[in-house]
Amino acid sequence: MRELTPAISARAQLLLAACSLALAGCSSLGASGPTSSSVKNAGQESVANAPIKVVDLNADVASRVMAANKTVEFAEALGDGRAAGTNVGLGDALDIAIWEAPPASLFGTMVPDSRIPSSSSGLARSASLPEQMVDTEGRISIPFAGSIQVVGLTPQQVGQAIVARLRGKAHNPQVVVRLSRVVNNNVTVVGDVSENARVALTPKGERLLDVLASVGGVKQPVGKTLIQITRGAQTATMPLEAVIKNPRQNIRLQSDDIVTALFQPFSFTALGATGNSAEINFEGTGLTMAQALGRVGGLRDDRADVRGVFIFRLERPEALDPAVAATAQKTPDGKIPVIYRLDLKNPASFFIAQGFPVQNKDVLYISNAPLADIQKFVNIISQMAFSIININNTIR
């Protein structure tokens, strides 16, 4: 083997020294994010002046988060409405007929009527009143009975209210009430539907899916559409897919309900030592942490730290332990910066991951294992060593 000339030897030594200085000056060998220890120590740091809460995921934490994020279903929040035409509304018109058994003579003329029981002559007096329009206060006015509140009542209940007012004034009064004109049995449908419209309800009792179908359905995929129903001061929201799967949530709509179809492209971002670092879309019905890990291809065997699986989230205070929430500073919109940590070295964590919900805009991060950084260092040193050997072989 020939000895290196002084000039070439000096060059090799200079190259080695430069590489050593480069390594010495590097504080990191390159990574896709913070280490597990850095994330765990984030509680002493801040995001926009809001201290970050690092919470280890266990059964209690998962249960609290799931309870806070439970969807309020239509059947529980709003109930099943009555079929249209069974309740009186503002502006509706009523046909009212009143019969009175003899000998009283408050209403009409003497007419034979076999439908009205009579203990005397079998003749009953009847009166058909002019069509009664329900006024802006929800009332109608009946002779000898006065002003009666009728909005929200069935025709049968209106008849009973009139009879109660006439008792003691008329002899055995009988009242028949019919809704002759209904003007307020409409539902408003807006949002991501084929046609925004006012849909008239019928005595059949149209349900939510009936009304959506009548306007041509939703424009976006079913799995990415939320349905919001507003009834008076109450509002409830559910994924359309969940309504389709559970017939109980396909509730009968009521007059003046507002149905809004909302396109909601839910997604989370996966970073770090995953099989696929990307923004991942998911359905409106929700996604668990276990499913999220599956969709990104799981953890990288050669890089991932199984104790360093994290969810970064701006969490609602009610989803956290009250003691934790009480000491946390909130963002301007009332959220608390939280990092949930899952230790997959513990087999029980896989059961927790099956129920823990991933939310829209979450960041799923998997840190590198410490040995992965050591392996990077060894690879760099090996490449440098072989480079010097190749230089030596070249200049022989």
From TrEMBL:
The keyword Signal applies. This is Polysaccharide export protein. Its main location: membrane. It is found in: Cell outer membrane. One of its GO terms (molecular function) is porin activity. GO terms for biological process: monoatomic ion transport. Residues 87-179 form the Polysaccharide export protein N-terminal domain. Pfam families: Poly_export (PF02563), SLBB_2 (PF22461). GO terms for cellular component: cell outer membrane; pore complex. Residues 1-24 form the signal peptide. Belongs to the BexD/CtrA/VexA family. It is a multi-pass membrane protein. Residues 272-366 form the SLBB domain. It comes from the Bacteria.
